[in-house]
């Protein structure tokens, strides 16, 4: 179940709102790497705007607040 959710999250993060891919698909990447591949999210994290990054992750991936917060926290620990 968790692996399927991760794949779904990665796929959602890699898609632009228009439905076009921003990055090439790569199933070996971790969810954090997929998160950092999205330019808007990466920029928000680099500027220290965690709340904005969480909001963007939720919009792109269609996941809940807790899951988005956990992803952003893992990304900031890298």
Automatic annotation (TrEMBL):
InterPro entries: Ribosomal_bL12_C (IPR013823), Ribosomal_bL12_C/ClpS-like (IPR014719)
Stretch list, region Disordered: 1-27
Pfam families: Ribosomal_L12
Domain Large ribosomal subunit protein bL12 C-terminal: 48-75
One MF annotation (Gene Ontology) recorded for this entry: structural constituent of ribosome
Swiss-Prot/TrEMBL GO biological process terms: translation
SUPFAM superfamilies: ClpS-like
Name this protein carries in UniProt: Large ribosomal subunit protein bL12 C-terminal domain-containing protein
